[in-house]
Every structure is written in C-alpha cells, then in structure tokens.
C-alpha cells in the first residue's frame, strides 16, 4: 500500500513537472510571439515614417518645381510685354519718322521737299537720283521743315511723286 502511495506521489510530481514545463514553453512561445509582433510593429512604423518622409520630400520638390515654373512663366510674360512695348515704340517712331520729309544738300544750298508723305530716306534717294544728273551729292538731313514754295518741280519717274527744290534762306 505504501508502495502504491509512493507511485502515486511520483506520478503527481511528474505531472506537475510536465505541467510546469508546458507552462514554461507556453510562456516562451507567448514571449517570442510578443517580440515578433513588437518587431513587426516597429518595422511598420519605420516604413510608415520613411514613406511620410518620402512623400514630404516629393511634395517639397513639386512645390519648388511649381514655384520655378511660375517664376519662369512670369519672366516670360514680362519679357513678352517688354518686347511688345518695344515693338509698339519702334512702330510709333517709324510712323513719326515717315511724316518728316525735308532734307538739305550742300550743292548750291538747296532744300529739297516732296509733295507726298514719303520717308526722308526715300526723298534722299530721289534727290540723289536727280543730283547725279547735275553732278551733286546729298550730304546732311534737315528734318522737320516744310518748304511751301518751289523754285522748280521735278516729277519722279519711279513713284510719280513731285520733288521740288528751294534755295535755303541765309541765317
């Protein structure tokens, strides 16, 4: 009978040992699982942070690019406006110049005028054409004076405008 009790005791001890071992194993497994979970969470967090950083960088880059593009567009617009203004100014200048048509020459101090609104350059060319026949050259321009009375009138054969000459008054 005592033998039986001893066997029972040893069996219960073994069972307790087994239970303890099982519990330990379970605890270890749980710890491992927890560690794994923590690691995974950490990794996920890191990944998220990296992604966020990347997104932020991308956004910054995009913003910079947009700003640069806007600046470039503004510069281009300004340049275009400037060019337009310059063109307009040039056109105005050209228009203004066309109205002036009195030029002087050194030969016997005559002033040549056209009866039609032609440019000073054209008038100079016409006078030069006329002067070649008389052996003189056109030297300086005296723009802004209109001579009303002509000593002699010559009709230009190239554009049918009338060119006249008058002796320039001294003083």
From TrEMBL:
<dbReference type="GO" id="GO:0003677">
    <property type="term" value="F:DNA binding"/>
</dbReference>
<feature type="compositionally biased region" description="Basic residues">
    <location>
        <begin position="18"/>
        <end position="102"/>
    </location>
</feature>
<dbReference type="GO" id="GO:0000786">
    <property type="term" value="C:nucleosome"/>
</dbReference>
<feature type="region of interest" description="Disordered">
    <location>
        <begin position="1"/>
        <end position="102"/>
    </location>
</feature>
<dbReference type="InterPro" id="IPR005819">
    <property type="entry name" value="H1/H5"/>
</dbReference>
<protein>
    <submittedName>
        <fullName>Uncharacterized protein</fullName>
    </submittedName>
</protein>
<dbReference type="GO" id="GO:0030527">
    <property type="term" value="F:structural constituent of chromatin"/>
</dbReference>
<feature type="compositionally biased region" description="Basic and acidic residues">
    <location>
        <begin position="1"/>
        <end position="17"/>
    </location>
</feature>
<dbReference type="GO" id="GO:0006334">
    <property type="term" value="P:nucleosome assembly"/>
</dbReference>
């Amino acid at each position: 009978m005592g033998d039986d009790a001893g066997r029972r005791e040893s069996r219960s001890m073994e069972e307790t040992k087994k239970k303890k071992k099982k519990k330990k194993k379970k605890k270890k497994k749980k710890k491992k699982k927890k560690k794994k979970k923590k690691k995974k969470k950490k990794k996920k967090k890191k990944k998220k942070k990296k992604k966020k950083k990347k997104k932020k960088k991308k956004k910054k880059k995009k913003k910079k690019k947009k700003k640069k593009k806007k600046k470039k567009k503004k510069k281009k617009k300004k340049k275009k406006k400037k060019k337009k203004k310059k063109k307009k100014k040039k056109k105005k200048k050209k228009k203004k110049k066309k109205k002036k048509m009195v030029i002087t020459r050194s030969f016997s101090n005559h002033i040549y005028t056209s009866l039609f609104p032609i440019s000073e350059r054209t008038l100079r060319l016409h006078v030069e054409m006329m002067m070649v026949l008389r052996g003189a050259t056109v030297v300086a321009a005296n723009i802004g004076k209109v001579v009303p009375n002509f000593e002699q009138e010559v009709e230009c054969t190239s554009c049918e405008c009338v060119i006249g000459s008058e002796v320039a008054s001294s003083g």
